[in-house]
């Protein structure tokens, strides 16, 4: 039996950081970055705020950032500007001498919180009772290290929104069914794209420990965990209807964490990197409604004044947990490294990491 909890030292932002101006914080951040040089690596997810992402040594989607952390052996200190599961992944993929920090421990992911390991163990027992050993588990990287370990131990792999199609296809070479955690939408959109009809997909409800499906149980090919992203669920069918009515020539591009209905009505969908590449390659004068997190959409609007870009939902907010990483927390992280305090270090339990890395490597060796 794995020990499912990890040890971590956390803290609350010291008061002194609240009274500093942005200019003071930026100047000190630059100074410490210069001082630490290659001993420091700051990966930043595309959903980070502009004032933070300007200090990232690399910006990327969750797959790119995982690959960069796995490849980096020089940095003794990795300050992950993103959310908790991303920092855990970085800790798992780096060596024992490298330390990973999350500037604010409250930067979680509401989707990752929708599946815990105890629910997963219960679901697995129930599903094995129903289907025997015919299921391979896949987990979106937006999940806890303990769930990644569970997946690794049971022959499965992690996926990101960049490689979900390839990984779901791979999973079907292993077993005849998949359990996809924790995002039902990415799982449904991906399985649908590779030709699995919606009638062959069931939903596992972890709150009531029950399988939701109409039809014959033996027809089920995909079991979707009933989780979702609380940011992307705010893009609706009505938003697509409104955009089509107001801007008939506008293309709609969304992240696959949006619901099946929204993805079906969009012109295109893909990971944050995919969306960025599409906009970068688009012709001047082209029009885009984007269905993803607002820090990224605003950045795309700012950096492409020659294109007409809007958010698919005009009242969208940023991902609030991504937004918890701000200049005071980044500076605090940097100063605590200089002072050898290791504040907010992410340390994944060794036993969990051993199994989780199997799931991550099955993915990384295929993409
Ligand atoms: P990407 O895989 O596109 O980076 O997305 C991660 C994420 O959390 C989206 O909500
Ligand atoms: Fe999690 Fe959604 Fe925020 Fe991505 S946008 S980090 S899935 S809550």
Give an overview of the whole structure.
- The structure is a single chain.
- The radius of gyration is 21 Å and the shape is globular.
- It has helices at residues 22-36, 50-53, 62-71, 84-93, 117-131, 145-153, 164-174, 184-193, 237-246, 260-265, 272-281, 294-303, 327-338, 350-364; strands at 7-9, 40-41, 43-45, 58-60, 77-79, 99-101, 135-140, 157-159, 177-181, 201-205, 210-212, 222-225, 251-254, 268-269, 287-291, 308-311, 345-347.
- Helix 4 (84-93) links the parallel strand 5 (77-79) and strand 6.
- The protein has 367 residues and is α/β, with parallel strands linked by helices.
- Helix 1 runs parallel beside helix 13 and helix 3 runs parallel beside helix 4 (84-93).
- The chain contains 14 helices and 17 strands.
- The structure holds 1,3-dihydroxyacetonephosphate (13P) and iron/sulfur cluster.
- Iron/sulfur cluster binds at residues 83, 109-111, 142, 229-231, 257, 293, 319, 321-322.
CATH superfamily of the largest domain: NadA-like
Q: What would you call the quaternary organization?
A: single chain
Amino-to-carboxy terminus distance? 31 Å
What structural class results from the helix and strand content? alpha/beta
Under the CATH scheme, which architecture of the largest domain would be assigned?
3-Layer(aba) Sandwich
Number of domains: 3
What ligands does this structure carry? Answer: 1,3-dihydroxyacetonephosphate, iron/sulfur cluster
């Amino acid at each position: 039996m794995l020990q499912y909890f990890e040890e971590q030292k956390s803290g609350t932002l010291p008061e002194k950081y609240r009274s500093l101006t942005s200019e003071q914080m930026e100047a000190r951040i630059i100074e410490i970055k210069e001082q630490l040089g290659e001993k420091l690596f700051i990966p930043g997810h595309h959903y980070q705020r502009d004032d933070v992402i300007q200090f990232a040594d690399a910006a990327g989607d969750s797959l790119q950032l995982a690959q960069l952390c796995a490849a980096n052996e020089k940095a003794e200190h990795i300050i992950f500007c993103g959310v908790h599961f991303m920092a855990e992944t970085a800790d798992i993929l780096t060596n024992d001498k490298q330390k990973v920090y999350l500037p604010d421990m409250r930067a979680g992911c509401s989707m990752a919180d929708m599946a815990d390991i105890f629910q997963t163990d219960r679901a697995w027992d129930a599903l094995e009772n129903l289907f025997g050993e015919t299921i391979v588990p896949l987990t979106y990287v937006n999940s806890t290290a303990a769930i990644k370990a569970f997946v690794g131990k049971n022959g499965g792999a992690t996926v990101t929104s960049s490689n979900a199609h390839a990984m779901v296809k791979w999973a079907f070479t292993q077993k005849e069914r998949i359990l996809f955690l924790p995002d039902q939408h990415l799982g449904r959109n991906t399985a649908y794209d590779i030709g699995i009809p919606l009638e062959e997909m069931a939903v596992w409800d972890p709150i009531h420990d029950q399988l939701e499906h109409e039809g014959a149980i033996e027809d089920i090919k995909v079991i979707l965990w009933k989780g979702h992203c609380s940011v992307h669920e705010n893009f609706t069918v009505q938003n697509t209807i409104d955009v089509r009515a107001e801007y008939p020539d506008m293309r709609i591009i969304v992240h696959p964490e949006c619901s099946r209905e929204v993805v079906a009505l969009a012109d295109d969908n893909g990971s944050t990197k995919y969306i960025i590449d599409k906009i970068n390659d688009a012709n001047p004068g082209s029009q885009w409604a984007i269905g993803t997190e607002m820090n990224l959409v605003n950045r795309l609007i700012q950096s492409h004044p020659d294109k007409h870009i809007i958010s698919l939902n005009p009242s969208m907010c940023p991902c609030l947990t991504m937004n918890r990483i701000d200049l005071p927390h980044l500076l605090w992280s940097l100063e605590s490294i200089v002072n050898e305090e290791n504040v907010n270090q992410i340390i994944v339990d060794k036993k969990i990491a051993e199994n989780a890395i199997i799931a991550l490597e099955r993915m990384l060796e295929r993409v």
